[in-house]
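Reminder to self: keep the SMILES exactly as supplied, no canonicalising. Ligand is fe (ii) ion.
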Amino acid sequence: MALHRLMEMEVGVPDPSTLDDFYQEIGFTGEKGVWGSETYPGQIKVSEASYRQLKYIKMACEDDADIAAIKTRLDAIGVAYEHSNGELQVTDPINKWRYVVAPSAVTDQITMPRRALNSPGNRERVGERAQVLIEPSPRTPRRLGHVVVGSPDPQKTTELCLALGFRASDTIGGGMATFMRCSRDHHNLLVTPGPVPYLNHYAMEQDDFDAVMRGATLYLRAHGEENQVAGPGRHQIGGNIFWYMKDPSGTFFEFFADMDNIENDEAWVVKDDWDMTDAWSIWGEKDQPELFFKVPDMEELITGWNASQ
Ligand SMILES: [Fe+2]
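Structure tokens returned for the bound complex:
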């Protein structure tokens, strides 16, 4: 009994139509304001807001017993909730976005055809050209995988998320930031420091290395290098291949693949003593670009947040 999937997120932006175009371009299906992959439709909702912001994230739990356990933990830390129509709704007292937890069947992703790769002594592809070259269309993202937010009080926000049932995977900075999961993914959520609450990035899973590289390359060729944020690389924490770019609303998005996967929660050991020398990426850029946590539209976000309080 536990949280087992990141179901949805909603973003609010001043001009939702630009995101409608964007999600179509990267290969999501859906309709105005509701986008997702073929296997996980409707994972990303878009609504109009005065400045770009995260509205909610929704997680799947197994049953009502999970909801009852979450309520007990929320009571213990004094955070209010609403429980109606089977869903638990919590407004974050610091950041004002909402968390929604709803019972849902445990499912896994549909297996995608693996591309045959050659390596020394292991020839999976013989007498055939590389599949990434001959596929009729580029692979598209499969699902929303994780969300990284900024908060004026990341520790309190993390404490709330753990009470909601997120599980700690790894920590950095002496417990300053905790990578958390609500599924088998190494991380579905990370709360980082921010002058005001904001959405730092959201990540969409691609099939493999080629799909990340190809998807990012096509996007940057079409929209210019000014939308490059970071990558490609492979994070140590989570182990995933990454490439970060900027979507038309100004939010960073990530294509990722090959993330660490945790099946046995009891057997997983949270690591807190990372050698930060190569923590950002084991190859490619050595350090996280400064831009990453100094997002270009921060002044607008601060103004927007202050005006809404
Ligand atoms: Fe990420």
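Points to follow up:
The mean pLDDT is 96.
Residues 146, 148, 201, 203, 254 surround fe (ii) ion (CB under 6 Å).
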